[in-house]
Amino acid sequence: MTKTQDKKVCIIGMGYVGLPLAAVCAKNGYYVTGLDNDAEKIKIIQSGKSPFYEKSLEELLPQVKIHATTDPKDIKDHDIYLICVPTPVDGKHNPDLKYVIEASQTVADNMKEGALVVLESTVNPGVSEEVVAPIFEKAGFVVGKTVFISHCPERINPGDEYKGWTVANLPRVVGSLDEEGLRRSVEFYKSVVTGEIVPMENIREAEAVKILENAFRDINIAFVNEMAMSYARIGIDITNVIKGAASKPYAFMPHRPGCGVGGHCIPVDPYYMIEKGKENNFEHKFLSAARLINDGMADYTVELLQDKLNEIEKAVKGTRVGVLGISYKADVGDLRESPSIRIIEKIKKMDADLMAFDPYIPTMPNIATAKDLDEILSKSEALVIVTDHNAFKNIPVEDFVKNGIKVIIDGRNCLDKKAIRAAGIIYAGIGR
Known about the structure:
This protein has 16 helices and 13 strands. By secondary structure, the protein is an alpha/beta fold.
């Protein structure tokens, strides 16, 4: 691990990407300033705690010093600026770069000459050159001389720290607008990350890496979702088929079907490339089809609920339905792009008597309406599993029986199908 000559690091955005990175930088001896416009979040960080749960952060934050602030004046005179802000899409799935633009402008208005600026936010190829660089040039900086601009796409995956991966050991790729920027970027990341640092030939290639990674996952999830829906019509359990296919030691990578794709990356990033393709008169048919399939899985899940209730001559309307899980991923409290929101809204529109519960999101007005697992089980006739939290996977079948659960829709294929059906409960999974 090298030690860069740059000593002061400023991180714009204290969310799931920025805060863990800030903690790791501080642990490695950097003076770290974290800027965010959420005053409540900053207050929590100043107290040595995290505004969201990550096991490694719970352990690391009390040991390090992060100068968290909402005041842009506090970010002057830093050597490195890391932009870690959201890059969502709007209601029409068009890329929304307003946070990147605002963050870049804030840095340009407050930085000293010679600083290194690294965009970690996920963007489509060309954004660093066409959007970020002009902001600094307009502010009077000369790219490659008085400001050095690089891109290092973040690879944070909430919950994966339990598999041994954290921001401190994940491999990273880096691209820059000039050789000096690339050298300083590689040197910096080698000083805080134990994983391999891969320099790219240019900054567009670095931007393209993250899009390729997440589009790959989206396409493969869409493929297995489509197969799941097809297999279900002919009585084949796709989970068994995947298990069989995964026995092949090469050329197959198992992906799992489910009630929808969530998180900030997989359901968002492909749209960035789809729109970039349109700008260049290219149609991304594969990416578009995958998005259509995966976005439709929430509707498919609700249709399963309707079909299974029909088997016992009940309508969704008026039925006491419990939704287990609101976050998009098991054992994290992250709501970003969660399919549960669409599922809950759709069931509500069908006039069900609906409750929802998530142990990682205990309070959320009009959505998280049950105080605990016991309450939602005791008051539901039908259950829809949206998130495969361990707390849900470990519910004994006897608890479903004693609470009078008649129908279970397992949107994550995480329950014991045979045991539930043997207990006389109607069960349907995604492709099961």
